[in-house]
Specification:
It is built from 12 helices and 8 strands. The protein is of the alpha/beta class and about 325 residues long. Belongs to the DeoC/FbaB aldolase family. DeoC type 2 subfamily.
């Protein structure tokens, strides 16, 4: 991943007069969704690229060492070897960008990846995921423990109450403390945009999170009723662009929740390319949080190579 975002001083003048033009954002979102997708070998190439952006995720109450082990194996070998050979991509080292687990499962993931002989990063959710409604002291300790156990990326959730009540200084201070607790680990800040009330709040929360030192801003926990949507993404991406113009610092973007189909992933890649440019299309600056997405991408690659769709038993589940 790229160097840490050191953050900036809190400057509320950046956000005080902001009003998001919702109709314009919705029109832009419709344009993206209506666009025809790439086909044939171009599609296969873009889908393989999409694999390298995935934070392969399991956040279930019944996670055990064995399914963390399977997840890590799938992260290392995301597409069946014979399919990669048919595309002449078997020697390109294609893996997912990271695996993402609960704090209590970080040790399991580190152990499984070490046993598989690979250096894929382990990301951990933290700070009272998904609601963020625990004491600050507890949330900070959770970050520190996940880092101690070997997580190199921490996906924190913000306290949405601070956004809804306009307590921007308090939000900035909390994220600054998360940044400090992360130490050398990268900080990905989940805004839980489906619970922020308005697109204007999404822009303001994005900007505060970046000022406070977030290396990535992330749409959702995946547990809200509304998760990653294009209108929200457009607002967050414009905030990233504005922050870059003001500071020269590139901040990463991670949509998560509800991204399940290969077609969805292509639309997200297209959005990033159009809004931020090719330089953001790398795992250091773009991730997709997903669990089911990889299976559909592999099915589409299988279809491209063989001309038929895979039966249930043809592709291994993670």
């Amino acid at each position: 991943m790229s160097a840490h975002n050191p953050g900036t001083e809190l400057d509320l003048s950046w956000i005080s007069k902001i009003q998001v033009n919702q109709p314009a954002v919705l029109r832009r979102a419709q344009q993206i969704q209506a666009r025809r997708t790439v086909k044939k070998e171009w599609q296969a190439a873009w889908l393989l690229k999409a694999v390298t952006f995935i934070d392969l995720t399991t956040l279930s109450g019944d996670d055990t060492y064995s399914n963390i082990q399977r997840l890590c194996y799938k992260a290392k070998y995301p597409i069946r070897e014979d399919l990669l050979e048919a595309l002449n991509m078997h020697d390109k080292g294609i893996t997912t960008a990271a695996v993402c687990v609960y704090p209590a499962r970080v040790c399991d993931a580190v152990k499984a990846l070490k046993a598989a002989g690979c250096t894929i990063p382990v990301a951990s959710v933290a700070t009272g995921f998904p609601a963020g409604q625990t004491h600050l002291k507890t949330r900070l300790e959770e970050v520190r423990l996940a880092v101690e156990d070997g997580a190199t990326e921490i996906d924190v959730v913000i306290n949405r109450t601070l956004v809804l009540t306009g307590q921007w200084e308090a939000l900035y201070d909390e994220i600054r403390q998360f940044r400090k607790a992360c130490g050398k680990a990268h900080l990905k800040t989940i805004l839980a945009t489906g619970e922020l009330g308005s697109l204007t709040n999404v822009y303001k929360a994005s900007m505060i999170a970046m000022m406070a030192g977030s290396d990535f801003i992330k749409t959702s926990t995946g547990k809200e009723t509304v998760n990653a949507t294009f209108p929200v993404a457009i607002v967050m991406l414009r905030a990233i662009r504005d922050f870059f113009w003001k500071t020269g610092k590139k901040i990463g973007f991670k949509p998560a929740g509800g991204i399940r189909s290969a077609k969805d992933s292509l639309a997200w890649l297209s959005l990033i390319k159009e809004e931020l440019g090719d330089e953001w299309l790398k795992p250091e600056l773009f991730r997709i949080g997903a669990s089911a997405l990889l299976s559909d991408i592999e099915r589409q690659i299988y279809h491209h190579v063989t001309g038929r769709y895979a039966a249930y038993h043809d592709l291994p589940m993670c």
